[in-house]
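CATEGORY: protein folding

GOAL: derive structure tokens
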Amino acid sequence: MKRTALLLFICLLGISIQAQKHPPQPKPAAPPKPYGPVPTAAQVAWQRMEMNMFCHFGPNTFTGLEWGEGTEAEDIFNPTALDCNQWVSVAKNAGFQGIILTAKHHDGFCLWPNPQSTHTVRESAWRNGQGDVLKELSEACNREGVKFGIYISPWDRNAPTYGTPEYNKVFLKTLRHAHTNYGSIFEQWFDGANGEGPNGKKQVYDWKKFNGQTKKLQPNAVIFSDVGPGCRWVGNEEGRCGRTCWSRLDVKGYGPGADAPSQDTLNAGNYNGACWVPAETDVSIRPGWFWRESEHPKSVQELLKIYYNSVGRNSLLLLNVPPDNRGLIPAEDSLRLVEFRVALDSIFAHDLAKKGAITVSNTRVIRLKHNPFVFYCENGAPECYNLIDGDYDSYWSTDDSVRSAWIEFSFIKPQTFNRVMLQEYIPLGQRVEKFHVEVEDENGSWRTIAEETTIGYKRIVLTETVTTKKVRVVIDKSRACIVLNRIGLFLDNVLD
């Protein structure tokens, strides 16, 4: 009898211990509903690339011009050592996931044997007229798992039909040839420039047909122009996105080029914009877009500032790295990109937030299909560790009625940082319009070290260098319930 009672006591004790290890789990709630316009799957994948490489290359590489006249002899294009594999290697070493090539700039010269033109590589001396830069680059990208994109300017200073209704048909055929012979294209870059052609006239572009055909032939391509529809110009070429940057934009009544919204609007987006058209920040590593021997690349510190002002403000960075007249990325540019990559890795390799215990003022209990376990924070709040788990599709959210909240990180030992990263889960829309960051001082008082507005896909806040045991991110105002999938704390010793 005593033996039976003892066994019963041990079993009950075991059940009690297990209950303490696994407290009763609250009933899961429905996930948050999308708010406002939301991105397509292709737009989400595009934004997550964060940085891509632009390659301006063509006759201007040999003449030193930024905008060619369109009258240059085809033989002027004659790179002596073109190697697209080298371009892709440089891009990968720098952490770029895609490359966009200027397949046709305003001068009309085509880097592929476009049947609609007589101003192409086919008419040049390069490789006896048998060369095709688009083919070589697309194949090199495909081999190395780098995505391939194309810039094709509708302005053509060489085409005899430019400035007439016939030209739009010619341009559609040009696009069709590029879009059907070189595999999958992740981004189609449309420049809105519109100047005079050989006959002294400007063209009335048929953007509806240009975009429609592109989407039909390359359904996963994100289309760039001043107003998208896939992504928008940031409004400057200085590498600077707006301190407030909405991925929403009103496009009705606007168009690319001269018909675009103001540069301030492109920089910041529209608070109540009807369409999801995120910003892309294009800037060159050198002073000009095309290579010149007299020019040199920006410093690592300059590139870091650009990164923080683009990727760190809810934009994608498209960094131009122009090949030289040999057809190679110059060694000094390649080296600078490696230095830039090393700097980024040194800053963001160690997330101090992962060392802390997390408490939150409010949380919504969600059990996602891919994440069957509910994580308990210090205060028993589920799911808040999704903020640091590294899974893009797991997130922390507040209840529907809660539009302001705080997230606190507590550390056993003091932590030193000067960069705060926040990310909203953009498949459900962009919500946050105001937040601030606080730290606790030695006296137990809270001090604000940063105040900002939007977050979007990613926001990196530059703060003073602080050492503390407690950090609090306060979402002051959100347009719907808060949905964040990342908060990180980092120390930048390169640009401090």
